[in-house]
Write a structure and sequence with these properties.
This protein is of the alpha/beta class and 210 residues long. The chain folds into two domains: 1-100, 3-Layer(aba) Sandwich (Rossmann fold), CATH 3.40.50; 107-200, 3-Layer(aba) Sandwich (Rossmann fold), CATH 3.40.50. It is 36% helix and 20% strand. It has seven helices and seven strands, in the order βαβαβαβαβαββαα. It has a seven-stranded mixed sheet. The chain is globular. The model is unreliable at 197-210 (pLDDT under 50). Keywords: Purine biosynthesis, Transferase. Catalyzes the transfer of a formyl group from 10-formyltetrahydrofolate to 5-phospho-ribosyl-glycinamide (GAR), producing 5-phospho-ribosyl-N-formylglycinamide (FGAR) and tetrahydrofolate. Pathway: Purine metabolism; IMP biosynthesis via de novo pathway; N(2)-formyl-N(1)-(5-phospho-D-ribosyl)glycinamide from N(1)-(5-phospho-D-ribosyl)glycinamide (10-formyl THF route): step 1/1. Residues 4-181 form the Formyl transferase N-terminal domain. Belongs to the GART family.
């Protein structure tokens, strides 16, 4: 059984979908803890499913690195096999990425490497393209630049706004996330194949590396 930690910042809609999937009989993963960098509404989903929560407020630390050190300490207590960034609106320090990767994944509302960054949906609309998409990636030290684990195209329709387009991307994003977690749990996706030199150096002592 794959154990999963999920990190959020907001409402946790992807988290809710993953919790519901994990509650289904036969799903090969379970969520052991949900963490956040602020008091997030998504904690309510975790509580509804009886999953412990961890709050590590970013603003209480002088540096990103200090915040990352505390976040790692709080999450490592649960020794998860995988960490999922699910709407965490905070860049992780490079040292934390190196420690957790490649067992660290994220979703993005675009067909990477197209339109990385915080405004992927808006940028796709602004480019006037006919299709965008959703992606699930291994997190690396760049901005949405890690290896792609799964992705799917989503059409841009006439009259689409940022809101309407994003609302059509979200269900695809959730499904891809659930499918990816399932594939990691069953071994269909071997995250060890995505291990960087930095990740390999951390693997011997880090419980997050399978």
């Amino acid at each position: 059984m794959l154990t999963v930690a999920v990190l959020i910042s907001g409402t946790g809609s992807n988290l809710r979908a993953l919790l519901e999937a994990a509650a289904e009989p036969g799903f090969p993963a379970r969520i052991v803890v949900v963490g956040a960098d602020r008091q997030a509404d998504g904690f309510a989903h975790a509580e509804a499913f009886g999953v412990p929560t961890v709050l590590v407020p970013f603003r209480e630390f002088e540096t990103r690195e200090e915040w990352g050190d505390e976040l790692r300490r709080q999450i490592d207590v649960w020794t998860p096999d995988l960490v999922v960034l699910s709407g965490l609106m905070r860049l992780l320090p490079a040292e934390l990425v190196d420690a957790w990767a490649p067992a660290l994944i994220n979703t993005h509302p675009a067909y990477l490497p197209e339109f990385p960054g915080a405004h992927g949906v808006r940028d796709a609309l602004g480019a006037g393209i006919a299709e965008t998409g959703a992606s699930v990636i291994v997190v690396d030290s760049g901005v949405d630049s890690g290896p792609i684990l799964a992705q799917e195209r989503v059409p841009v329709l006439p009259g689409d706004t940022e809101h309407t387009l994003h609302e059509r991307i979200k269900p695809v994003e959730r499904r891809l996330l659930i499918e990816t977690v399932r594939a990691i749990a069953t071994g269909e996706i071997d995250l060890a194949a995505y291990r960087t030199d930095a990740g390999a150096a951390a693997a011997a002592s880090d419980p997050l590396i399978p």
